[in-house]
Amino acid sequence: MKTGRIRHFFAGGNTGVGFYSFYDQVVGPEPYRRYILKGGPGTGKSTFMKQIGEELLTRGFDLEYLHCSSDHNSLDGLLIPALKTAFLDGTAPHTIDPVYPGAVDEIIDLGAFWNLKSLKAKQSPIMETGKKKKACFERAYVYLNAALGIYRHWRKTNYSRLDQQAWLTALYEIKADLLSNCQPTGQKGHLRHLFASAITADGPVHFLESLGSAATRLYILDGPPGTGRDEILKRLVTAAVDLGLDVEVFHCALDPTKYDHLWLPDLKTAVFTSTWPHQYRPNDDRRCRYIATDPFLKPELGPDSDTLKEFRLVFSTLWERAVGWLRQAKKFHQELEELYVDSMDFNQITQLRNSILYRIIPR
């Protein structure tokens, strides 16, 4: 039996403007059956979704895994496109509530399987640990916000030296190569916004290999901030959507207003920006076209050169401090999980999971 394929990405992230969510973009305009999982840390939400995914994968279903932006080994969501079914973690910070309860959305309350008496006895350590975890995230976001300010100045400084004709020439060449044979459909394409990378407790993590492996064509824009990459991606999105093509837009993990990568499923084509912290070097270069954007910049002036060096140094320091606080937040989250795990009846959760699997798998 053929095994299914998994696509990996993030629907939310720890960014320079705090936690930023694209969970409203996970499911497209077509009707989906949504199972919304509720319950505290350690109640088994991620494991619930992973085990359903493992079973469906062996049955040949393609899956989409939404990873947790604080701990990329944990799942916040599972989509099964062929079944038009999604499982989503509906707890904070990406709170999700039913839109059409019963008809479309169903709440899975894993809190129904915990021992309330046991948890009441742990009330004090649960509340204290939860406060510490929240404080760590708040401090991480202070540093990420400062890093974002530096990053935007860095980008602005480079942009002031940008040769406009250079990036426009690259754009026209990509558009001609990519879209010249596409005929307008008479309707707008659909946009889906997500993250391909995240700032996690383990540092930066990206899933470009998962997204790029299905591409028959890859365009890789390689260069620092402010070298025309954003402009190229935005213009490509507008042109593709106007032709009626669907586009998945993957945003910057630090600055969620900025585009980092595109996936055009109708054309099996990806356009990635490759730079730290999401450098991408595929094994098969035959389907790739590399475009270095550094040459789009005019020569540095003396003051600009010193400013850019300072930007890079300060940015690196702020980034490391932010990751350090995310690491502390993860530690406290793990302590919370341990407090909850002993109070859970996982046998009942297994029975519930099996009954839902029986319900959704076609017979």
Give the tags:
single chain; 363 residues; alpha/beta; 2 domains; six-stranded mixed beta sheet; 16 strands; 40% helix
In whole angstroms, how far apart are the ends?
16 Å
Q: What order do the SSEs take from the amino end to the carboxyl end, as H and E?
A: EEEEHEEEEHHHEEEHEHEEEEHH
**Average pLDDT, all residues:** 92
Portion in helices: 40-55%
Radius of gyration, CA atoms, in whole angstroms: 22 Å
Overall tally of structural domains: 2
Protein name: ATPase
Task: Give a quick rundown of the structure.
The protein has 363 residues and is α/β, with parallel strands linked by helices. It has helices spanning 45-58, 116-121, 123-159, 164-179, 208-212, 229-242, 302-341, 346-360, and strands spanning 6-10, 12-15, 18-21, 33-38, 63-67, 75-80, 85-89, 105-109, 191-195, 197-200, 203-206, 217-222, 247-251, 259-264, 269-273, 288-292.
Task: Write the SSE topology.
Blueprint: E1 6-10, E2 12-15, E3 18-21, E4 33-38, H1 45-58, E5 63-67, E6 75-80, E7 85-89, E8 105-109, H2 116-121, H3 123-159, H4 164-179, E9 191-195, E10 197-200, E11 203-206, H5 208-212, E12 217-222, H6 229-242, E13 247-251, E14 259-264, E15 269-273, E16 288-292, H7 302-341, H8 346-360
Parallel strand pairs: 1-5, 4-7, 4-8, 9-13, 12-15, 12-16
Antiparallel strand pairs: 2-3, 5-6, 6-7, 10-11, 13-14, 14-15
Helix pairs in contact: 3-7, 4-6
